[in-house]
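Incident log, support desk, overnight shift.

02:14 A customer reports that sequence design results differ from what the structure should imply. Their input is reproduced verbatim below. On-call engineer (initials T.W.) acknowledged and began investigating.
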């Protein structure tokens, strides 16, 4: 077991990934590709290069910058699935106006944003998606989308042509009955599986990355572990053989990962099978597996009070910007409206950075574990356990 360092396997499984996690997206900007050492990877939320860059940003300037490396654009509430675990957006959102979206893309690019994540709802139901992605590519940014895989090959091929370099595709269970129940659809699993396999087969030039996301619920865990974990073994084998670039399990609840399992013994078996069957090259998979055992989502009382994440990664809907996708999804206050002045936007961001995030009900309950880990790391690097 060369790729993992296992410690205290019982009663709570813990392990550390020994190889640094440094995913790289294909460069699709203008001109020649930047030198890798000068270009920390983007598109993910948890590489150490980002924490180091954020710490330098915090300590090297007294002026708050509106520049972000990565931005998440929430396009629509609409979806063609009704997943039982989905934390659907908590407030109404007007449709995007093309002129406003184009202006936002240009502004982000001019400020130095390198990557856009397009999300929803299900972004592939938005008629203008290909056009929007092409705008971002022409502006020098890379693009990724989150999708349920139901759009069909033609749409995904069109999006690749437009500039998508990363797909996060939901695939919650290899069991057709469980999949139908979780997604509230009928008979869609074979088509989604075939679409993923075909996209992988066509990616001979490595023009894009495909990452499969599987959301764990008590129902999917029970299915995975039944009959000597037959479905789990099947799923892991398929992920490894299908050609996907990486895959990961995500917890459906804000509770600790262990709460999804009927017992510690079942969780230990689940993780042991993952370690046994999945090669070391799937670093995102092992990173997520380790992160999910650090207490689930939400903040603890000893968490850093400052959200450094918001300095480098913000979310936008058709009306304005948010400190993160969680605040957007949960109906939190916008930092600012699109039409606000830059002075006002800086003032609002400064106010957010000086507030105690551990006292914010949304952060307390929903803060992603990867955001929390990033803030802890940056806090350590800047030599503080609290405010900015």
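02:41 Re-run completed on a clean worker. Output:
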């Amino acid at each position: 077991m060369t790729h993992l360092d296992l410690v205290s396997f019982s009663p709570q499984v813990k392990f550390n990934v020994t190889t640094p996690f440094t995913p790289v997206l294909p460069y699709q900007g203008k001109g020649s590709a930047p030198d890798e050492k000068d270009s920390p990877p983007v598109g993910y939320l948890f590489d150490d290069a980002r924490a180091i860059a954020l710490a330098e940003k915090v300590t090297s300037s007294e002026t708050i910058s509106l520049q972000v490396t990565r931005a998440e654009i929430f396009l629509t509430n609409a979806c063609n699935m009704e997943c039982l675990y989905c934390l659907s957006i908590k407030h109404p959102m007007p449709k995007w106006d093309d002129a406003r979206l184009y202006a936002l893309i240009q502004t982000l690019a001019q400020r130095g944003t390198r990557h856009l994540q397009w999300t929803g709802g299900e972004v592939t139901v938005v008629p203008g998606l290909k056009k929007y992605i092409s705008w971002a590519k022409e502006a020098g940014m890379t693009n990724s989308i989150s999708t349920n895989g139901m759009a069909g090959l033609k749409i995904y091929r069109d999006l690749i042509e437009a500039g998508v370099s990363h797909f996060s595709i939901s695939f919650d269970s290899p069991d057709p009955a469980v999949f139908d129940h979780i997604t509230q659809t009928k008979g869609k699993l074979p088509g989604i599986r075939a679409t993923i396999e075909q996209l992988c087969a066509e990616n001979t030039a490595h023009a894009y990355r495909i990452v499969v996301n599987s959301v764990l619920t008590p129902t999917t865990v029970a299915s995975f572990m039944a009959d000597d974990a037959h479905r789990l073994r099947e799923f892991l084998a398929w992920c490894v053989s299908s050609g996907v670039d990486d895959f990961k399990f995500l917890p459906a609840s804000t509770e600790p990962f262990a709460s999804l399992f009927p017992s510690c013994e079942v969780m230990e078996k689940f993780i042991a099978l993952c370690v046994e069957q999945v090669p070391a090259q799937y670093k995102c998979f092992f990173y997520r597996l380790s992160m999910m055992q650090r207490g689930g989502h939400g903040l603890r009382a000893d968490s850093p009070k400052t959200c450094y994440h918001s300095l480098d990664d913000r979310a936008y809907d058709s009306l304005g910007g948010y400190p993160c996708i969680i605040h957007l999804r949960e109906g939190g206050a916008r930092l600012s409206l699109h039409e606000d002045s830059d002075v006002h936007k800086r003032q609002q961001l400064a106010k957010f950075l000086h507030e105690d995030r551990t006292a914010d009900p949304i952060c307390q309950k929903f803060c992603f574990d990867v955001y929390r880990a990033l803030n802890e790391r940056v806090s350590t690097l800047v030599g503080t356990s609290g405010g900015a």
